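ingest -> fold -> write
write: protein_1
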Amino acid sequence: ALFQYINYLLFPLPDGLDRADFEAMKTYAEQLPVQAHVVVLAAHFVAATGAGIVATRVSRSYRLTICILLGTFFTIMGLVNILQFPHPDWFNLIDPFVHLPGCYLGYRLGR
């Protein structure tokens, strides 16, 4: 949520844009600069890392397995996001590979 807030501060929604209008949001997303997509990548990595930390701390066993499952879930959700919203090609290539390393980092930090 913090990264989304930062993106809205840096790249505010146009006046009158209805967030419930999927097509309007797609058009808005197509016009975002590179920096906005970098913030999204950072948000995905930080969220995965945080999830890995929490999962490692609360799990009594199978900690790494749980983190890998979380990373896989985040990767699948990231792919759904890529299919639903337009992103630059470079984003589509990088995003699927940030979730599992983020969860693994969280596992390492949470031990």
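write: protein_2
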Amino acid sequence: VVVPAFADQFSNGRLVADAGAGAVVEVGDGTRRLIDERNVPHIAGAVRAALDNTDYRQAAERIAAEMAAAPVIDDVVAGVLRSGSPPRWSVSTIKPAIRGENPINNHPDT
């Protein structure tokens, strides 16, 4: 359950929800507001619902496996230093992976 409060938490929460790996609880009318005691019941309800939702767990496990299979930064940097250029895939290719696709491991340059 993502309860965004500032910065990129709003877009990150939406990515989690869009991936089916969790829910976003925004307080108020969608504007950025501080969380207070009035929001506790709504947040608690979202947490209870998430704990009962096996689809969230399965999606989160799929995303975790994809992240674990991605190259670590040390290997990427070493490859750039060896070749003199970055790989042709980018972080933007991870968004399809969140939907269950695997563009990184299937990319011809990896």
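write: annotation protein_2
The first helix runs from residue 9 to 18.
The chain is about 50% helix and 0% strand.
pipeline exit 0
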